[in-house]
Amino acid sequence: MKLRPCIDIHDGAVKQIVGDTIGGSVNPRTGGMRAGVTENFVSFNNADYYARIYRKKNLPGGHIILLNSKETEPLRYEADKMQALGALAAYPQGMQIGGGINPDNAADFLNAGASHVIVTSYVFRDGKLDTKALRRIQNAAGREKLVLDLSCKRNENGDYVVFTDRWQKPTELVISDGTLTQLSSECDEFLIHAADVEGRKAGIEEPLSKLLGSWLQKMRRQGSGFEVTYAGGVHSLDDVRKLKEASGGELDFTVGSALDLFGGSLSLDELVQTSQ
């Protein structure tokens, strides 16, 4: 079990936000559209500042996420990208990158220092997994450099459904042992945000963490070294212990808004020690 650090970039600044408020999500209480992004933290420091901290503390395998839409907010996306390139230069091969990744730019980010590229929306079309698109991104990046982001929300049946387009659009893909096993042969890792609790500092999605942990333990018994990073809701050391117990210590995790670097109360050093 390892701590995977994160750098989220929005409007050209490092931020921590409530994840599903990006892009005008639906307010579940009123049925109307939320007014805008809910920000937990906006940094005065650039992304390379955080990358240097992670490098100094030897915390590889974290992720940089560009949160603006490449299609609808091109100028803001470019501002995000400039920040991200600075972070990759500060910690070459130390961080993964996601947000607007496609076959045309995947190699550019890898050449700029990313260890992996992270994709979700590109490999889905009309709510279904697009195997042709998956092959294209594999050819561009290499399967061993590809991370599939299977971020999800829980539906009324209790199933965890993968969401795309900044967690606004549901797909037909449900997180299950079968789905995870099938897709694990198509990439090097999974990154899975529990989107309902992302940024809310209110605790983890325990059923999801147990599902992922159970699958990982089965994979380990079969000799697999596949890795999964869980994100969403971690706000206490008790949450970390729950993740550790659920996965037998196999599930990696990330902490955003609750981290002291981003205005929270959890110490980075203490988190590293707890996860070991």
Explained architecture:
The chain has 276 residues and is of the alpha/beta class. It contains eight helices and 15 strands. The strands form three sheets. The chain has a ten-stranded mixed beta sheet with strand order 3-2-1-4-5-6-9-13-14-15. Strands 10-11-12 form a three-stranded antiparallel beta sheet, with no helix packed on it. The longest helix has 17 residues, at 74-90. 46% of the residues are buried. The model is unreliable at 24-35 (pLDDT under 50).
The number of helices is 8
Mean pLDDT: 90
Main sheet overview: 10 strands, mixed
Cα end-to-end separation: 7 Å
Structural class: alpha/beta
Order of helices and strands: EEEHEHEHEEEHEEEEHEHEHEH
**Which consecutive residue ranges, at least 5 long each, have pLDDT under 50?**
24-35
Query: Helix coverage percent of residues?
Result: 25-40%
How many beta-strand segments?
Answer: 15
Work out the radius of gyration.
Answer: 17 Å
Shape type: globular
Strand order of the largest sheet: 3-2-1-4-5-6-9-13-14-15
Determine the strand fraction and express it as a percent band.
Answer: 15-25%
